[in-house]
Each structure stands twice: as C-alpha cells, then as structure tokens.
Amino acid sequence: LAKTTQPISMDSYEGQEVNITCSHNNIATNDYITWYQQFPSQGPRFIIQGYKTKVTNEVASLFIPADRKSSTLSLPRVSLSDTAVYYCLVGEVNRDDKIIFGKGTRLHILP
Amino acid sequence: NAGVTQTPKFQVLKTGQSMTLQCAQDMNHNSMYWYRQDPGMGLRLIYYSASEGTTDKGEVPNGYNVSRLNKREFSLRLESAAPSQTSVYFCASTLPGDRKYTFGSGTRLTVV
C-alpha cells in the first residue's frame, strides 16, 4: 500500500478556494487516489476518486500530475461547514483488502 | 435508508466486561471493515472481511474478535474490555472493485 503524507492542519477563510496536497511517492501503476471527508462525531464519507489528470464533481476537484506522485484536492469557495478532516488514500480499486487511513488534514474554515 | 447501521451508539463498560458491537449494511456490499478512532487521531483498521466467511487482521487486532455472520452483518467483540479500548468504533462496507467506503455513524465506547 502506498504511503501518503498530508499536512496535519490548515486554516482558511470563507469564500476562499482551498487546496490540500497529498504526497504518495511510491504509488503503484494500479493505484487510484481517493479522498474522504470526516465531520466531528461522524464517519468519513467519500468525496472524490481519480487515477490521473483531473476529476471534478459537485463537491470538489482532484488534480493529479503526470507522475502521479502527488495529488491535490481542491474545494471551491469554502464555507464554515467545510470544516472537517480530509483523508487521502491510495490503493488498488479492484482489491478488497485492508485500506489504511492516515491522520488526515484538519481543515478549519474561519469566518 | 440504505447504508451502514451500527448499534449501540453509546456504551460504557467496566474493565473486564465483554460486549459485541453490531454492524449491518443493506447495500449488498461484499467487504466490511471495523476501525477505531481515538481523539484527534485518524482511523486505525482493526479487522476486515473481504467476503462472507472470511476475516483478516488489520493494524490493531489485539483484544478484539470478529464474526462475519452473513453478507449483511459483521460484528466486533471485546472479550475483556480494557480502558485502552475506549474509542469511537466505525464500521464500513464497500462493493468489490470500488474503494468507495460507506461508513456507519459510529459507536462511542468508554471503558472505566
């Protein structure tokens, strides 16, 4: 399983775009990158998943450079409700073995 | 509503007591997982089950046992609870070839 490194915490202001970068230098050819969001007292929820280049959905965008050794989760125009912990995971999607969550990035949105 | 249901939501145990945390999903997912989350920490995998009838250890399996009762249900048992097992426990499930996990709302366990 590829090891990931994310910032421990980040602060931003309402209305700003927030970019959270995840490093995964030993990502394997079959690995996908998946991001989760966790609000206090709740389980994590899936946000976005990608393999290369750019993926966008109604919640976020995921940017993956050509070498795939890092990825950036982009949250447009954040609000106070985006305050949460964000986890970056790397692994094969066609395997159902264990997947390890790191400590994630604690994002704090200020008014 | 479809999803992952965990019971109970809260539990207080005395040291040495036993209990079983229940988890059920109604999404026809093959794989199920148990995680624990300590304050300010990420999630640590306790056990997982890739399919009915199979279970495997995760990062922190000591002090726990699991049972994959059927495709829907995956239970976690603490045989002799210890204060170090005070944590929030999350159950999750996923389809094969997906990696998009659905988590339950958690069980907050305190061992005194």
Characterise this structure:
The complex is a heterodimer of chains A (111) and B (112). Chain A is built from no helices and nine strands. Chain A has 111 residues and is an all-beta fold. In chain A, the strands form two sheets. Chain A has a five-stranded mixed sheet with strand order 1-9-8-3-4, with no helix packed on it. A four-stranded antiparallel sheet of chain A has the order 2-7-6-5, with no helix packed on it. The mean pLDDT of chain A is 91. Helix content of chain B is 0%, strand content 49%. Chain B has strands at 4-7, 10-13, 19-25, 31-37, 43-49, 56-57, 65-68, 74-78, 87-94, 102-103, 107-111. Chain B is globular, with a radius of gyration of 13 Å. The N and C termini of chain B lie far apart (34 Å). The model of chain B has no long low-confidence stretch (mean pLDDT 93). Classes of the chains: A mainly beta (111), B mainly beta (112). Chains A and B meet through strand 3, strand 4 and strand 8 of A and strand 4, strand 5, strand 9 and strand 10 of B.
| Topology of chain B as a string of helices (H) and strands (E) | EEEEEEEEEEE
Helical coverage of chain A, percent range: under 10%
> How much is the average pLDDT of chain B?
93
Q: End-to-end distance of chain B, in Å?
A: 34 Å
Strand content of chain B: over 45%
Q: Please give the number of β-strands of chain B.
A: 11
Provide a quick synopsis of the model.
The complex is a heterodimer of chains A (111) and B (112). Chain A has no helices and nine strands.
Can you tag this structure with a few keywords?
heterodimer; A: 111 residues; mainly beta; 4-stranded antiparallel beta sheet; 0% helix; B: 112 residues; globular
Task: Describe how the helices and strands are arranged.
The complex is a heterodimer of chains A (111) and B (112).
Chain A: E1 9-13, E2 18-23, E3 31-38, E4 45-50, E5 53-56, E6 61-64, E7 70-75, E8 84-92, E9 105-110
Parallel strand pairs in A: 1-9
Antiparallel strand pairs in A: 2-7, 3-4, 3-8, 5-6, 6-7, 8-9
Chain B: E1 4-7, E2 10-13, E3 19-25, E4 31-37, E5 43-49, E6 56-57, E7 65-68, E8 74-78, E9 87-94, E10 102-103, E11 107-111
Parallel strand pairs in B: 2-11
Antiparallel strand pairs in B: 1-3, 3-8, 4-5, 4-9, 5-6, 7-8, 9-10, 9-11
